[in-house]
Amino acid sequence: MARDDLGAMVARLGRRLLAMEQPILARHGVSMWAYVVLNGLAGGSVRTQAALAARIGADKTRLIPVLDDLQERGLIEREPDPADRRVRLLALTDSGREVHRVVRDEIRTAEEALLEGLAPADREAFVRALVTLS
Amino acid sequence: MARDDLGAMVARLGRRLLAMEQPILARHGVSMWAYVVLNGLAGGSVRTQAALAARIGADKTRLIPVLDDLQERGLIEREPDPADRRVRLLALTDSGREVHRVVRDEIRTAEEALLEGLAPADREAFVRALVTLS
DNA sequence: TTAGATCGTATGCATATGCTTACTATTACG
DNA sequence: CGTAATAGTAAGCATATGCATACGATCTAA
């Protein structure tokens, strides 16, 4: 079967997904990085900025303006850790959790629509493979 | 099944593939864009710079330095089209075809190794889905 | 206690990206 | 013929990215 490189195809698909998500994020006034942060914090296992940066694959210095913005808008909290005063403990506010939930649901819905183009069995396998490879 | 957004997983996989390809490209002195160009020209259906830019999703102005470099190194030819002297017809040289083949083969081999982590059936379905979605 | 490591923050740099404008040569159309 | 459109080229701009450095506050370990 003649096909492109995986890299080329994955890159194209990535651009397509990005284009799909952009309007959703814009509609809720959330940047891509802000959403990634909300997503990372929603997992619950991440509490410090360094851990968050490592988890989402971002530079810790570049994360700061994003966190500043999210904090100003009341979507996250940044409290000093009483046990280690170097650290700021991050947490979603109720408002942040709600925004994340809404945006995430819309993105999931759009993703499902995209996957409609696949045979059900392929869809299953595709997602499974993606989970394994990513 | 709890999983990340498709966008997040595809982006991670993309970064992984990029990291995998980078050493291969570097070993042959080819930049990512140069390889994409060689790949686009290897298809055979593209002959002009504008068509190439459209095909690989690049800006036509940004393509120029890449083409200049490839031409200087004798990997492509850029001849004026006798039928339309605005146009430069692009073509791989034998040397360019060879470099492309070698790099592509190495990338394919590395990709196969990556896909080893999947069940054979999933691997098939994954590639099929990728072709459809990208 | 002292030296070294870590966390958050600020700043700068080199590079990459997408977009826009402008210009020349050339072609296509009214 | 003359105007509009197109191909290639050059240059600039705003933004984004990865990377490095520096600094104060604080913790850890010898």
From TrEMBL, chains A, B:
Q: What are the GO BP annotations of this UniProt entry?
A: response to stress
Pfam families named in the record: MarR_2
InterPro entries reported for this sequence: HTH_MarR-typ, MarR/SlyA-like, WH-like_DNA-bd_sf, WH_DNA-bd_sf
Q: Which GO terms describe its molecular function?
A: DNA-binding transcription factor activity
Q: Where is the HTH marR-type domain?
A: 3-134
Q: What is this protein called?
A: Transcriptional regulator, MarR family protein
Q: What is the lineage of its organism?
A: Bacteria, Bacillati, Actinomycetota, Actinomycetes, Micromonosporales
